[in-house]
Amino acid sequence: MHSQGKSSGSIEMKKEVDIFIPCSVDQFSPDVGFDLIELVESLGFTAIYNENQTCCGRVLYDNGNWEEAKEVSEKFINDFKGTNTVVGCSTSCVGYIKTKSVVLFHNTSNHNSHKSLSERIMDITEFIHCVRPDCDLGAEFPFKVFLHNNCRSLNEYNVEEETRLILQKVKGLTLVNDKGNNFCCGAGSMLEMYNKPVSDELAKRKIEYALSSGAEYITSTDCSCLLRLQNYIDKHGIDLKTIHIVSLLRYSSKRNG
């Protein structure tokens, strides 16, 4: 089950878990951050949130600004010092820390600190699979759902299998798509800013694929993708919604609470 980018099965799961809230969640979808904390705590852990945390450096890295990326990533490493497992809700950001930013710290004083963090950090989907192998959280979501696996979750940090297992255990949820839709949604690294026609076409294809599958919702492990798709949906008045997998898993708890 553990392939490239995934955490070692030997990680010691302490009862205190550090929470990583990505920039896109903090700025545009804060409810997902609160849902992440509640989800981790519902699994029997104490969620610790460091208010000083900032960007992981992924956007700078992807756009070739490696010096700036290194500076931001160094702060990120310092924000998550210690031995706690770090749980985030973005396979893109977590994948960057685990498999990409390592090149910034070769033969530097932060090499070992980065190595430690890369082994301790994981996406919520991998975390759920580690602490609850049957992936049954008692969640309910009575809708038809299209799963969008973002590019990084497939190419850097493959948690597609874990994500599907979790969704298949959600009561009332119908997963409508096969595994043949694995192409970019148009968000990829600031593509929407630098090449909007291509970004729009990719978003259009993804949404058409979801609609043809009969989906009522698109879910993903990455907020940036969902923001891109929701922007296109709103602009064109399409009868479709997006929801982060964390909020999907908390849906029944919030509705009944």
Structure, described:
The chain is of the alpha/beta class and 257 residues long. It has 2 domains: 16-130, no CATH class; 136-256, Rossmann fold. It contains 13 helices and 8 strands. It has helices spanning 23-28, 30-42, 58-62, 66-79, 91-100, 111-120, 124-131, 151-155, 160-168, 191-194, 196-212, 223-236, 245-256, and strands spanning 16-20, 46-49, 85-88, 121-123, 144-148, 174-175, 217-220, 241-244. The strands form 2 sheets. Strands 2-1-3-4 form a 4-stranded parallel beta sheet, sandwiched between helices. Strands 6-5-7-8 form a 4-stranded parallel beta sheet, sandwiched between helices.
End-to-end CA span: 35 Å
Query: In terms of per-residue confidence, which ranges show pLDDT below 50 for 5 or more consecutive residues?
Result: none
Strand order of the largest sheet: 2-1-3-4
Number of strands: 8
Helix content: 40-55%
Average the pLDDT over all residues and give the rounded result. 89
Based on Cα principal axes, name the global outline.
globular
Helix- and strand-based class?
Answer: alpha/beta
Q: Based on the coordinates given, report the CATH architecture of the largest domain.
A: 3-Layer(aba) Sandwich
Q: Rg to the nearest angstrom?
A: 18 Å
**How much of the polypeptide forms β-strand, as a percent range?**
5-15%
How is the main sheet built? 4 strands, parallel
User: The CATH topology of the largest domain, please?
Assistant: Rossmann fold
Number of helices: 13
In CATH, what is the class of the largest domain? Alpha Beta
Structural domain count? 2
SSE string, helices as H and strands as E = EHHEHHEHHEHEHHEHHEHEH
